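User: I'm curious whether this sequence folds into something compact or stays loose and floppy. Could you predict its structure so I can see for myself?
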Amino acid sequence: MIENRTFDEIQEGDSASLVRQLTERDIQLFAVMSGDVNPAHVDREFAKDDRFHQIIGHGMWAGSLISTVLGTQLPGPGTIYLDQSLHFRNPVRLGDTVTVTVTAREKMPEKNRIIFDCACTRQDGKIAAEGVAEVLAPSKKVRRQRVRLPDVSLHDPGAKLRNLIDEVREYDPLTMAVVHPTDTASLLGAIVAAEASLIDPILVGPEKKIREAAEIAKVDISPYRLENTEHSHAAADRAVELVKSGYAQALMKGKLHTDELLGAIVPRESGLRTERRFSHVFVMDVPDYERLVFITDAAINIAPTLDEKADIIRNAIELAQSLDVEEPKVAILSAVETVSSKMTSTIDAACLCKMADRGQINGGLLEGPLAFDNAINSESAKTKGIVSPVAGNADILVTPDIEAGNMLAKQLEYMGDAKAAGVVLGARVPVVLTSRADDELSRMASCAVAVRLYYWKQGRKTP
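Assistant: Here's the prediction. I'll summarize afterward.
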């Protein structure tokens, strides 16, 4: 319950207080609410060289706590703020505990007004802020159920992918053949990645259409090599030739169907095919998941066989390792976590785990079948009695078919505020597979993933 003290109930000298520790979440919430992104409060690197050599809280964070005491304790509900003066004496540092106290100094009966002395004191006894408040105190008694506030979840969509992009800038740009970039989205994706020093694009496709797209997008493509072809099929074939001849180190899909691009890569005579099955991996930045999660296959293999799933897992493990996940935890998904003869996906999962036990799949920890909740939530796994280092901590989610994979990835993206990068594996070079709906971050992150994978395969794990 929340209850006030009326003007008549308050005596001069009465006081109330609260104690609060400043956390990083407090600073972030206050910055989001106020828009005050002064780097002294939110940028650790800047704060190191600032006056206090560390992040400090917003001055008005302490001031807002004075309002909390006045509005909820003394006088409490029904109080109307009239005036507030504040003097800031010392900073409140991250981790500091402050005691906020208001004390009634003077009552003015003719107007039901009360003047309060206010002080915010740090745990070391130093005053952080002090001042005087004047309020109109309530005349009627109020006692009500305390309102339950909504839970506030702070997340920064795409933060992990942006960090990856920043890390990859230290590598040499990857020469990337961009296949048929004849619309503004695919062309801009390549140009933005080039301007970020991630790639050095070769634009492959009908020159007239590419230049028209550049004109619409208002970008200058003169710094980049342009390979003129008649149509999209020819563009895919020419891009493959550029890789075979050593002029390009990776491929990027433009405005053409995935089948057209893969159709130029898959034939053995193309020289880009390996013994591995081609597969696609979404590298997803899910805000409430502590690390990147890899979802496969959601774009190429429609109903993979057991052997094809083994290759899909091998590809995903290598990609995760290229992104510094030394021993990826692989969850093989199904609708249930027990093996059933009526569900092929559960039998495949059990077989794949045994293949890993026998050394047929290396580099990762495999567990399955696992339902999605068991794979990513440790409490759910514990409730089901599943004891496994993978359950609740999965890095790689292997879906039973393309439908499940595509729906899972799109649900995370559109309902879970996740951001995604996408790459095709199994060829001799990375293939960036973008969608027309992808935003700038997704396209740049996909290029960053390709850069890391390429140099990892070259044995270069660091810039």
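Summary: The chain has a mean pLDDT of 93. DSSP finds 15 helices and 18 strands in the chain.
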